[in-house]
Amino acid sequence: MTNLSPTEQLFRDDAYLTRCEATVVAIGEKGGIILDRTVFYPTGGGQPGDCGVMVAADGTETAIATTVWEDAGKTVIAHVAIEDMPIPTLGAKVTLRLDRERRHALMRMHTALHLLSVVLPYAVTGGSVGEEEGRLDFDIPDADLDRDALNARLAELVAADHPVSFEWITDTELDAKPDLVKTMSVAPPRGSGRVRLVRIGGETSVDLQPCGGTHVKSTGEIGRVEIAKVEKKGRINRRVRIRFV
Hints:
By secondary structure, the protein is an alpha+beta fold. The protein has two domains: 8-98, Elongation Factor Tu (Ef-tu), domain 3 (Beta Barrel); 102-244, Threonyl-tRNA Synthetase, Chain A, domain 2. Helix content is 17%, strand content 36%. Strand 12 (194-200) and strand 13 (207-210) form a beta hairpin. The longest helix is centred in the middle third of the chain and has 20 residues, at 100-119. The mean pLDDT is 93.
């Protein structure tokens, strides 16, 4: 599908928005509903797409199972309805209502995983954000990890209630600072000429890295979290799982 304008991504500026008014601009090649704007985050960067409800002007509700990118360039977002749900017509005005509890759990976990990458300062080779559990895969030369010490450090970072903020740099600036990129398997979200950085902490930041996902406003909002399991996935690759407690 061509000639579609980029979807206005309201969640980029405010991850706490749970609803918005929008207009149906197209039906995607795989049946996804494309709007001019959305508060729903599309699957990407290890974070699953949002779900919720799309409500037409007459009150008809369409349950949204997930949200995905429609195009390879990741500029157009499609909302995937549950099978046999009514699909609004082109030009229709709709209201999006996000599953806020699920989104907030994903925000908490995503920020917790950034803290995990601080506790374990190694190259990240993969990851996944879940509502109750998340994981990161690391290349760790020494596999003898002290889980109690790591959990104590993780709890300390959460309890410090560090602020979480966002800033933008150009693609060229990011290329000049490759050390900002921790993830070896997931490329930073590019395409618009600039990249969003997530900063945890103030000027002397605890963590700063490219990320397009949704996050809480401060680490204290994460709540209690712990390293649940460390799995050996290769000679030096370790999968570290964290969960809410």
